[in-house]
Structure prediction request, 713 residues.
Amino acid sequence: MILESYLTPHHYDLVTPDGRITQIGATFDNKRLATVKIEEISPAFIGYEIDPKLITFNLKSTLAQLGLNGVCKEFHYERKFNSAYVKVELQAIGKLGLAMLELLEVGSYVGKLFAADDRRRVRDPDYLMRMFGRADRKGRPLLSLGGLEGSGALILEKIEGRTVAFISLLDGVVTYDLSVYGFLPTLAKILKKNIPHSRDILHLHQHWEKGVPRIIHPNEILLVRTSPLHIRTVYGHVVHSLLPQGIHHTTADYLQPDTTASGDIYELFGNSDQIIDDIPIEFYTLEPHREHVFFADRDQLVAALEDPKALFEAFATAPEPKNLLASVFVVKGTQMKNLTGKDWITRELIKHEFPGLSHPARQAQIVEKYIENQPAYPFLKAIEDGLITSQGILLSRHFPTPLLKRMLLNEQIQRCLKRIYFQFPSCSHDGYFSHEDRAMLVDLAKFGIPVYWVDDVSGKILQYVLKPEKEAGLFVPLPLVETFRKATFLGVYGSNLQEGTFELELKRLLQGILDMREKMNHPLLTKETPLALLTGGGPGAMEVGNRVAKSVGILSCANIVDFRSKDKAVVNEQKQNPYIDAKMTYRLDRLVERQAEFYLDIPIFLPGGIGMDFEYTLEEVRRKTGSCPANPVLLFGEPEYWRRKITSRFQLNRETGTIKGSEWVSNCFYCIQSAQQGLWVLSQFFDGSLKIGKEGPIYDEGFYTFDGQKVLR
Prediction:
């Protein structure tokens, strides 16, 4: 696959690998005609798709510094074999160049093709200016002349629709001592082995002669220098047309994006009595993922991510079927806008049987295979290896497996991965997260990697947001994130089978609390405090709660459990109600953890069954153990109903001494039949006059009831 092929260590899409001579003619008039074969060309090489006139042959700079030039006469591709053949006229400039030309033979690696794609030419100087003073993760300058902050000698101008840097030349020239002739046979062997960094060895034979005029003489190569040049973010190319008349540069005229403190020697020839003062360089961008661009600098991408339609359309390009695992790493807005199925890395869902911790070696091996089979793995590995250097976002059809946590929280990946977007929580469990998923969501939030759900059900983009000072969170619509973070949480517990008759009173209660904010100054309620209401997200009393929350304009939330029909199940399937803004989902085996993550400030109970009994008991335990403060709990319904639910158990525990010292918990529960009664309780609580908690009274029935005058009995 093309996408994966370019996530390799030595691939850049504007250049080919170096090619070797397969045929070479005799020397005539200081020239030799050679056929150069280039192999293992990447399928993503841009030269395949642009005008052949934009393709040039780039001679190895080692040869150019010895006085050789290489002119491309013709070339053709053999795409079936990922190769190309290039006819190159090798020209000797001066005695040293001629000596080296004679030593070249079949098998010598002499240069590569460069695709000068006009679409990738840097046109705006600001694109380069933002790189000055920045370094890669190893501390190397992204773009500078003379050091990390060295930009003063790099003059940028916009000429004929392109950015050109005029790099000042140092005072003097580079020359050789005679020992270099003895090195040439060794260099010829090095070229046949294609050993890298041959230029560094050549530098041992070079001398810097300060004060010598930079003047070109006929049939001589002139080597000039600049301050050390660092290029990590672009290709540099000598602009031949901007050189002084009569002065030419060799075809070793491209600077690679791995140039660090080198690229400071330029090879000139021709005939001119003019001293040359600078070298004009234009620039071509790298593949977007290698540009070292910060997420904050990608204005178009940031804007696109604020548009739900753009995100849904991006996910729509992922290959079918829906159970196919698919991921893509996006670093710029135009990339996201133009996504196609070919841009995604896909994997079949393969189930592995993990042997468990009793077989640690096998477990580790199978886990590693499983991780490597994930479609996000090639992108994350490329970030680790430095092949992806631009910050961006990961689009993943399914929420990434928790087994990728080790990679996702890696320091290098954390620097590049700025957001994760997914469409489905699980490939095997549809819309429901596992316990491990939720744990990873918490970790990602703490490590500053935002996670977003592109949710088909609501048609909205939901962001995972942790509850303040809690180890749990919800997926919240983007416009409501701050509301969620600051909100006081009410909650409705009750039957999933019956809506009951309290909808109107519940609505009056919530509206009354909203109005009450104006006169309260309590940590849970001030005029700036937003409200949120949390339910289990199903039908019955839960639907009533969410519907009322929406109707009065407060954030409507749900912790939703997978109650779909299962073999021998005795639970009614509970479909999600349509009044939910923010949500978290749970699988049935984690029902207890789900209940523990409600974290309600003010619970409200409507009549219900076994589930509600469990929820009621848990609220009691929370107050007894101090895991939550002694806030009031409202019980909607007739006192007789709640006596039959609560009183006998409370009194038996009290009589047998099994709740000794905790009987005060009874003063946290209030049986009400109207919103007016509930508002009275809450107003007393928020103004500090309610007798509640360990110092409060004990009520024999296990909860408070009201008389007709709304006085506590």
Remarks:
- The mean pLDDT is 90.
- The domain at 291-456 is CATH 3.40.140 (Cytidine Deaminase; domain 2).
- Residues 639-656 form the longest helix (18 residues).
